[in-house]
Amino acid sequence: MADPLHTVAAPLREAFAAVTGLPAADIDPVVRNSDRADAQANGALALAKQLGRNPRELAEAVVATGLLADLCSNTEVAGPGFINLTFTPEFLSAQVAEAAASDRVGVRRAATPEIAVVDYSAPNVAKEMHVGHLRTTVIGDALVRMLEFVGHTVIRENHIGDWGTPFGMLIEHMVDLGGVDAELTIDLSDPSAFYKQARAKFDASDEFKDRARARVTLLQSRTDAPTMAIWQKLVDKSADYFDVVYGKLGVLLRRDDIVGESFYQPMMAAMLDRLDQAGLLAESEGAKVVWVPGFKNREGEPLPLIVQARTGGFNYATSDITCVLDRVERLHATLLVYCVGTPQSQHLQMVFKASEMLGVLVPPARAVHVNNGNVLGDDRKILKSRSGEPAMLLDLVDAAIERGRAIVAERSPELPADEKAELANTIGIGALKYAELSSDRIKDYVFDWSRMLALEGNTAPYLQYAHARICSIFRKAEVSRASVRGVTPTIGQSQERALTLQLLQFDAAVHDTLDKFSPHRLCTYLFDLAQAFTSFYEACPVLKDGYEATRESRLALCDLTARVLQQGLALLGIEAPERM
RNA sequence: GCUCCCGUAGCUCAGUCGGAUAGAGCAACGGUUUCCUAAACCGCAGGUCGUAGGUUCGAUUCCUACCGGGGGCGCCA
Fold first, then answer.
1. Residue nearest to nucleotide B32 (CA to C1')
2. What is the domain range of residue A22?
C-alpha cells in the first residue's frame, strides 16, 4: 500500500500483539494524522484501559519492540500514551515511487467488486430541469465515477417521471394539436411551456378534464397505438432536452440510462402478488398497504406504506419497491445508491424496510439513501430565478460558462480562441460542480457565484490553477511528464515532506469518500493537496539555476501531484486544464 | 403532537468511530515578484464548538433535556 498510515499499521499491530499477547488481527493501532509528527498511533490508550494497564508504559513497550525501526526515524511517546511517528525519508521515497509506478496513482481497488446501481437526477417528462436537480445530478455522477474507479460495475439509472396522471392531459393536448405528427419542440428557455398549456386547459375545461382522465386509462392499458405513440414522442423530446443539459453539464447520464417509472409499471401487479404471498399485504381504509414497523402517523398510530390506492391505482411506493426488486433480481446489484433529496428520507426508509421484509433487500444487497440538502439563494430560500420560479438548471449552466468566459477573457487573453472557449467551459462548469460537491451534501448551502468562481480558497479554479502551473513547469523544462515516472524522489525540505505525505493519502481519501458517499471529503483532500503543492512551489524551486541536483526528484513530485489532481478532479467530473 | 436532520471564528465551511494548544478559505491587518503562471505564497488576528446536565483519566465528538432553524408524518411523486 502506498499510504504510509496504512503501511505502518501492520508492524504496529504486531508490536501491540507482542506486548499484550492479544491476536494482532483484533488490534486497532488507531493511526491518525498528526500535527506533531507525520502520524500518531493512539491505540495504546484504549488497549491499556481494556487490559487495566498503564497506557504510557504500554506505548513505551510497543516502541521498544523495535518493529517500527525500519519505517520510522523517530518514535516518541507523548502525553498519556500517544506514539508520535516520524517516517524515514527513504520509506516515504519508496512509497511515492510505488504510487507513481501505478496507473491508479496509489488508489486500491475495492476488496470485493460489486454491481452497484446509482439512481440520480430523475427529472420529469415535459417539465424543466431546475436547481433542485443540480445536486443529485452532480453528486450522483461523482459517485458513479468513483465507484467505477475502485473497480465496481456501475449501472447508472435515471428514474425519470414518465408515467401517471399528468400524461392524460399532456397526451390529450397533443391530440388537440393534431396528434403524434403535431409540432412539439421543447423551448430551452421554457421547457415546461407545453405542460403549462395542457395544465391551463385542464383547469379551465371540464370536458378536457374528462378526456384527460379517459386518456390516462387508455395509456395505462398500453393497448392503444396512437396514445402510446404520442406518449413516446413526449418522452423522446424530453430526453433530447435532458441530453442537452447533461451534455453541457458534462455528466455521464444519457438517454440509454433512462429507466423511468413506465418501465416498472408492468411489473407492479406481480410485485403486489409477492407481497401478498409473503403475507405482507394488508388492507386499510380501502387501500392495499404494508405495515412497516417503526413508523407512526400524526395520531401516533402505525403508519402504513400504501402500495395500491383505494381507487386501485399504484403510487411511488409501488414503483419504488418494484424498482428495488428489479435492481436486485434482474441486475444482480448488491449496492443500491439513491441520490435523492432529504424530504424523501422517510419514504425511502419505508420502501427499503418493506423490501427487506419481502426478503429481497437482504445481505449482501443493501440500499443507501444519499440524501442532499437544498441549494439556497441569498434569502435562504430555494434558489429562484428572476420570475420567482426555482432557477432553471440550464440557465445556471449557461451562466456558469458565461462567467468562465469573462474570467478567461480577463486572465488569459493570449490563448487561442478555441482554447479560450474550452477553458471558459472547464472553469465555469468546474466551479459550479465543485460548489455542489465541496460542502457536506446533507446540509443546505447558499449559492454564490463570486465565491465558487473565486480564484482563491476551496474552489475548482484554485485546484485547476495548481494543475496548470505544474503543466507549465514541464513545458518550460521541455521534459515529458512520463519521463520522470521512474524517478524515486528524495524527500528533503519540509514542504517536500508535507507534499509527499499528502500525495500518499489519495487512496485513503477516495475510499473514505466512498464509505460515506460524501464527495466533499475528496474535495477537502484535493484542496489540502493543492495547498501543500503551492507551498512547495514557493519554497522548492524545480528548474532554477543551482537546483540541478534536486530537479529530477522535484519534477517527479510535480508529476505525481498533477496526476493526483487530474485524477481527483476527474472523479468529481471536473476537468483539469493544462493552461489557464 | 410524534419523528429525522442541522446549529463550530464577523462571513462561508471542514473536523468529530472520545484524545494532546478545535482547522481552512473569505473579509481585516502586515509582508513577499531582477526568480518555474502573484489566479500565488508567508505572517498576524479572530471561536465559552447553540444552552444546561450526565458518562469518562479525557467530551466539540457519546447520552439526556431544553433553545433555535429546516424536513417528514395515508391513498401526488
1. A538
2. 4-87
